[in-house]
Structures are given as C-alpha cells and as structure tokens.
User: What shape does this take?
Amino acid sequence: MTVSTLGISCVYGTSNTDLGVVTGSSTTGGTARIDVSAQVLKTAGGFLCANPDLWEATYTVTQPDWIDID
Assistant: This one.
C-alpha cells in the first residue's frame, strides 16, 4: 500500500501477516465488515516514513451483499 501526504510517498507491504478480522453479515445485521489492525513494514520511501507503521482501518463489504463466516 502507498501512503502519500504533503508530497511524501511511503510504500508498505506485508507477507504472511494476520491483518485483522472479518465479521460476517449475520453478526453485523446485514453488511460484512473487515477490521484491519496490523504492523506493516516500509518497502520504499524516505527517512520520514515510519518503519514499521500501524495500519488500522474498517472496511464495509458491499459485494457480495451477504457473507456468512463459520
């Protein structure tokens, strides 16, 4: 992933890293959700780029419109 701010681009990547949790539609009441919380390592960018950096985000799954998680 590339993060750009104030003209500075930092590129981060990960391999075999647990990124977070997928919550199924039956738990959320209709729309599945992906909650990401992981440390990612810098793969490119200058000294102003944090290494490692923390990626925290919540994504709503829009397609498919229903996901069951066992």
Summary: The chain is about 5% helix and 50% strand. Residues 2-60 form one domain.
